C-alpha cells in the first residue's frame, strides 16, 4: 500500500467538516491499511453526549478521504470495523477500482459552512438529488414546512444550551474569537466563520468570561439573542432523517451520506448552515419531530440551506495545505 501517496493528500482529507471544527479523526498507517479512528481530546462530551455528531463527523471524514483518493487516482475502499473501546471506525484498504463518486477534490476544497445570508428556496430537483443520496442508506430528507414555528424552537434551544454552564464552558474551549488565539489557524470556530463583527466578538468574549457571575442575571437569554436569528438570514431548513434504531456504525455511515449531501448542495451552488441545537435539546427535538410527523430519535441533522450571497470564510485545519 502506497502510504506516501495518501499522506500527501491529507491536507485535503482534513477539509472534512466536524461539529465545532474539532477534527476528531486520527489515522494510523498499517502495512495493509490506513485505520481511521478518533481522539477523545477532540470530541464534545458535554454538547454531544451520545457521540452522534462525533460519528457523523467521522463518516464525513471517511467519505472525504475516499473522494480525494479517487480524484488522485488511488484505488481505495472503506471497510467498516467499529471498535468503540479502542476508538476505531474502520480502515481504508487497497481496492480493485477507484471509489466511484461524482465529486472531486476541488468540491471538497471549496465547500464551506455558510452562516451568512442564504437566498432562494431549495428547488425540487435538488431535493430529489438529496433524496437519492439518503434513500439507499434507508434515510430521507425533508424540508421543514412551518418556518415561523421553527423560530420559536430555535430560540428555546439556544436559551436552553446557554443556560447550561457545562455546555457553555465546552463551547468556549472551541471558540476562536480573537486572531491572536493560539488555535486560530488550527481548529475551532473563528469570529470570521461565525460572521461576528469585531465589537460583537469582543462583547461575546467578555460575556462568556463573566458567565459564572452574569448567568443568574439573565446572561443565557442575552447570549441566545446576541447570536441573532439565523432564520432571518434566509434559506430552507432541511432535516436528514435516519432509519429507526441507527447504531453507532450506522451513524458513521450517515456521516458519509451527510458529506455526499453537502457536496451535492455545493455542486448545485448552494451552501449549508447546520442548526444542531434543534435536535440537541430534547424538548425542541420532540417538537420538531411532531412538526415533521417523524419519531424524534430519527432526526439526525438539521441545516439551513440556500444560495450564498458572498464566499464564506474558509475554516481552519490542524493539517493544512502548505503546512502539512
Ligand atoms: C455533525 C455536524 C454538526 C454541526 N453542527 C453545527 C451547528 O449546530 N451550528 C453550526 O453553526 N455549525 C455546525 N456544524 C458545522 C461545523 O462547525 C463546520 O463544519 C466546521 O466549523 C468546519 O467548517 P466548514 O464546514 O466550513 O469546513 C456542524 C458540522 C457537523 C459535521
UniProtKB/TrEMBL annotation:
One of its GO terms (molecular function) is oxidoreductase activity. InterPro entries: Nitroreductase-like. It comes from the Bacteria. This is Nitroreductase. It comes from Micromonospora wenchangensis.
